[in-house]
User: Fold Amine oxidase from Pichia sorbitophila.
Amino acid sequence: MSRDARVCVVGGGISGLSAIHRLLNDEHTPLAPEDVLLLEAQDYLGGRIRTDRTSSKIGKSYDLGASWFHDSLTNTVLKQCIKDGTFNVKDDGRFTDKNAKVFHNDEEKAIDLNGLRGYSVISELEKYIEHYYFEDIGMEDMSLQKIVSKYVDEFEDSLTEEQKKYVIPYIRHMESWMGLHWSDISAKYSSVDFEGRDIFNLKGFDFLVKKLLKDVPEERLIMHQQVKRIKVGENYSGRRVAVECASGLKVTCDYLVMTVPQSVLSLPSSHDYGIEWTPSLPSAVETAIQSVHFGKLGKCIFEFDNIWWDVEEDSFEILASANGPDTKQISPSEQHHDNTVPEVFSSHTTVYNLSSNNFTESNKGGALLILTSEPVTQYIESSPHLAWQYYKPALSKLSTPGASVTDPINVITSNWSQNPYIRGSYTALRVRDDPREIYLQLKREVPSSVPSYIRFAGEHTALDGNGCVHGAFCSGQEEASWILQNCK
Amino acid sequence: MSRDARVCVVGGGISGLSAIHRLLNDEHTPLAPEDVLLLEAQDYLGGRIRTDRTSSKIGKSYDLGASWFHDSLTNTVLKQCIKDGTFNVKDDGRFTDKNAKVFHNDEEKAIDLNGLRGYSVISELEKYIEHYYFEDIGMEDMSLQKIVSKYVDEFEDSLTEEQKKYVIPYIRHMESWMGLHWSDISAKYSSVDFEGRDIFNLKGFDFLVKKLLKDVPEERLIMHQQVKRIKVGENYSGRRVAVECASGLKVTCDYLVMTVPQSVLSLPSSHDYGIEWTPSLPSAVETAIQSVHFGKLGKCIFEFDNIWWDVEEDSFEILASANGPDTKQISPSEQHHDNTVPEVFSSHTTVYNLSSNNFTESNKGGALLILTSEPVTQYIESSPHLAWQYYKPALSKLSTPGASVTDPINVITSNWSQNPYIRGSYTALRVRDDPREIYLQLKREVPSSVPSYIRFAGEHTALDGNGCVHGAFCSGQEEASWILQNCK
Assistant:
């Protein structure tokens, strides 16, 4: 079986969809629907936007992938959605940024982070890390865990024992951004720019997918097509590129927009889910792709038939013991084959209260959303039935006086780490990674021997909005624009 | 009367003292004590470091000028003092950075800023302002008050009515940094970099003055010498510079370190406290000096024989009504001649709890420290006896349940705005000011026709630590170093 088109988009996530949407709907487009094709490996569109509207037993829907508009001051996708009326901040958005109520693995009662003057300590620690690499970006990288120790050693006299125990571990909330354990997080690139409040998307991020699909004929989107091989530089039935799928489908085209995740791009071509390039990608590009990693942020949602936690709170952080055995040492990913739960609960846990009185609530019970990070994500996603056993000790701390912790009536987890087409959550930087090269190479900010008609898009190619919906969306639009300017 | 020296330092504040200290104590100095002279206009040394150890009726001492080590991550003066044992953070310093307890002029009960998701709104507002000028520093400046209105208009839908009323005015805490009313604060330069936690200096900042004076022979410091005229470029008894004082004293020298405050430098030469330069300073330098202003941060300390506020709190912010008459309109500085208190209390008030349980406490009563800004500073400093009448309505909100507000047994205020040699607090940027020129001109980062043996120091010349002790201190050291390298 073979198909032909002027432009082929590989990947039906938000970057691929925004690319094909622009290709067909730009006011000056010379392309007709039959000129473009999109190949999606899986059985749904949206990629890491995935709104689950069916699993809930209490009438809710959940975004198992992206669920916040980040960087709301500068987020052009958000601004566009507000402008065209598809997203209304007051009705469809929620700010979930009260200071988290903080607990600690070793304590039953909440930690008064403000009373401990903790917020300024955390700000100072973040600034310390920034300074450490600011003067000389060439300084040897180290883990977030290690640089935190350095700070504590250096400012020993400015920290109380209580701050060391109950405030410093709060920095591990970064694990819930990156999906990595703090012993793996690059200190050099750990700082997260604040570009405006995050807006929790209450209507489900699939609205954005649906909005794009309205203007893209369904027959241009071919599902279940895992791309196995991309050939470039010879004549393929009059085209410059040939794309071969696992199904046997061959697509010839003149322009390719490659949006598969970095986690797939970085696989060896011999891998079951890897892609073989003929000729091989230049080694500078290969190296750039390998110079970042994929985090494994996951989601675990517990539904309960009653609410036994504080509905005033937006979120909770449960800090790990500093000295206790750590999930890192007793990595559940290494032992999940025998389905045992790690002996001691000691990872950092970020919990969002999906039943806060900030949300419009049914009276049908409540839900807690846990953001999981590596290695817990693999454990939970591979064994959702063990999730409650794993989290119960930590979550029990959240119970309000007089309320009894009840077992959940439903457990819903994401599956990103187990999904062979996704393989994690999004780009995240491990120790000694370098985020600049992949951008420079894939966005051609440096000379490249990859033919110019091979375009790359996706969150991993974005400088602004890296890892975010708007970064992915805009990267797709940019590549579409380039093709529109060059294909006339 | 006349004196002669190789180097003359004008001004005995911390920058002048650090300059003369370095000149005499640098290990390679070619200068003997008789080679240097320092002229101080007032009857004490330290300038805007002024520790009052005598006024308290409850056994305390107060820094009426500088009282925090700012930027503690990068503050080299702090680091040096820790290293040489003159300052011990644990014993001599206090962190006063719990989130302030917030009140509002229109409400009796405290405002729950976190409950209103206020901290992230304030962060977003600050980021909005930063962004506004980041792309194009040439954008027309406006007041902090005006840009806040712009933000509120633009993000109308992302703000609740409560946030607009009770969170947005919190941004006026900046008035207590700058000593200016928010209708005067430059939006363009309103952002304050966080470079580590501020450390309240419990031992009194005069320790730093005393430390320097130990190594400077007293006879090299001439008090009560207000400089009136500086002549440069001819031969003055074999020297290159002649300095004339109001007392009639004439000093000839080869190098001049000019450390008088910007508020004095910027006076016309005809002014009673102005300085006449012969020849005149180049117009580029004159313009640069006029392109910044002096804030009028003041301090007002109330001592009480009992404590009726919450000793758990480090500080309080009492927010002004948005719509009520504002101190700006009924400027007390304009009416203080008849000693009336402004009709309605409506300025922003920052209060530090000098009796917090964070401090080592005598049992002799307690004290509250108010940071005042323009125009209230002039009012309070000129009429300390009216201070309680002015602040009582606001401060009464701080009383804990069951405690009665009592009148103070003592009122101590700073006098900076009334002191003709100081004329305010420190450099602050009003709308359309530009902080770059004064640095470039006075630190000779651009070609200057001022002879190189005329050096400028003081907080107003510092890029890092502008307005701070460490900025002033280091600027004095730098000029001393330059002279040491050039006078051999």
